[in-house]
Amino acid sequence: MKTFTLAELAEAFALTVVGDPSLRISGVSSLEAAKATDLAFLANPKYRSQLAHTNAGAIVAGEGALATARCAVLLSPNPYADYARIAGNFESRSILEPGIHPSAVIDVNARISPNAHIGPFVVVAAGASVADGATVGPHCIIGPDCHVGPDCQLVARVSLVTRVRLGARVLVHPGAVLGADGFGLAFDRGSWLKVPQLGGVSVGDDCEIGANTTIDRGAIGDTVLEEDVRLDNQIQIGHNARIGAHTAMAGCSAVAGSAKIGRYCLIGGAAGVLGHLEVCDKVTITAMSLVTHSIREPGEYSSGTPLMDNQAWRRSAVRFKQLDSLAKNFNQLKRDSPTS
Predict the structure, then answer these.
(1) Could you tell me if 218 and 293 lie in one domain?
(2) Is residue 339 in some structural domain?
(3) Which of the following is catalytic: 239, 246, 276, 293?
(4) Are the C-beta atoms of residues 104 and 56 closer than 8 Å to each other?
(5) In a domain, 124, yes or no
(6) Which of 115, 158, 174, 283 has the fewest CB atoms within 10 Å, i.e. is most exposed?
(7) Is residue 288 part of a domain?
């Protein structure tokens, strides 16, 4: 079992110890569940009341916690980020040796680095390549002309369909599908005509793609994720969309084809962005919102109605339908009223 003294953690992460620097920490936990050998954290002030009752041996927190903390404190300007860095030291990771599992099917025209790990029942097609240090987990499919960059990790059952290029250190969780056909259709003579999807998918360095997320390849040119994009589970990215660097999207959100999302954006759960729109840098879209027009100014944007009890919602829904006539009546009253 790994253990660290507070002094060792403080030195490793450039933090300041308030309390016993020799205290040995063997794990991490929440304020509520922590034991005397655990490290917890306080990032949200609304949990400050838990400091009086926690059994944690130490916490990562800002100076505001010193007055009420009953335990040692690792002072941090960003407690949650430093907690995340420290917690990585306690994460157990299995070491996968380089090599190709006997059950894997590798085309003779694929290129596999001798320093890559290819797991059970993996299929690698002609023209595909897997770079140094990459890990391809069980039942993954690397399709034609796909490239898995250095130190990437495809956890399990990941499908790279065709013309997908992953940069370095990309993490793709189980069930994700990258490079499937985009939803390209033309209506002619009473039926749909499929538009060929001739582009690919380009994923920048240090991106993370959640479980069962889908990223369609471009119709012409590529669908692009710039560096350090973080996608949660069950997200849909349409063909030829572009997601700017350092943007994070929560589960079940969606970006339609040819939309462009800027850098450092936050997209809430189940939010949607319509096709061909542009969202500038540093925009936050709150959960369940629908972006129906381009956003040119940074800020926080919302749509939809807040939660209310069902009877109140029903009354409001009836009034929504009356808004147009109410507005017309109001404007008519303004026109008919005598000027002051």
Answers:
(1) yes
(2) no
(3) 239
(4) no
(5) yes
(6) 115
(7) yes
Predicted structure pTM score: 0.91
For 264-320, write each residue's pLDDT tens digit.
999 999 999 999 999 999 999 999 999 999 999 999 999 988 889 999 999 998 998
Distances (CA, A) of 51 to 78, 217, 315: 18, 49, 44
Are 280 and 262 within 8 A, CB to CB? yes
CA 310/CA 205 separation, integer angstroms: 46
Per residue, the 3-state secondary structure of 189-211, as one string, reads CCEEEECCCCCCEEECCCCEECC
Q: What confidence score (pLDDT) does residue 241 get? A: 98
Domain of 45, in residue numbers: 4-90
The stretch 229-256 carries a mean pLDDT of 98
* 126 shares a domain with 65: no
Residues 6+ apart with CB under 8 A from 107: 124, 125, 126, 127, 128
Mean pLDDT value across residues 151-156: 98
Q: For this structure, is 239 an active site residue? A: yes
Burial class (CB in 10 A: 0-12, 13-18, 19+), 207: buried
CATH number at residue 268: 2.160.10.10
